[in-house]
Amino acid sequence: MSDTIFTKIINKEIPADILYEDDMALAFKDINPQAPVHFLVIPKKAIATINDITADDREVVGHLSVVAAKVASDLGVAEQGFRTVMNCNEFGGQTVYHIHLHVLAGKPLGWPPYTEDMKKHVE
């Protein structure tokens, strides 16, 4: 698997607004947020798609959810709730081929799309 933008973020070759880091995972703000709170949680191990996850990856993949809940709590959105999404391959909307968990919060599901105007009020 070739290096992705996420590999470069893990290696600190390009900047990111990092919210959490440990030996297995990294969480950082999404550069194109789709909700008032939108961050990604990625494994430091390069796994291209959900289809590439093996039984040996159980701990790291489960750890992504633990990190998502911790960061959501740290950001004060855990009690209201949040959505997690992991896309797989082209038809699933995956654009970076290094698995990543999207965490979206800060507005009720089903509300209008998050717009540039809304961003001004939450930053």
Automatic annotation (TrEMBL):
Ranges spanned by the short sequence motif Histidine triad motif, renumbered to the chain: 98-102
Catalytic residues identified in the record: H100
Domain of life: Bacteria
A single MF term (Gene Ontology): catalytic activity
One Pfam family linked to the record: HIT
Annotated ranges, domain HIT: 5-114
Protein name: HIT domain-containing protein
Organism encoding this protein: Alteromonas genovensis
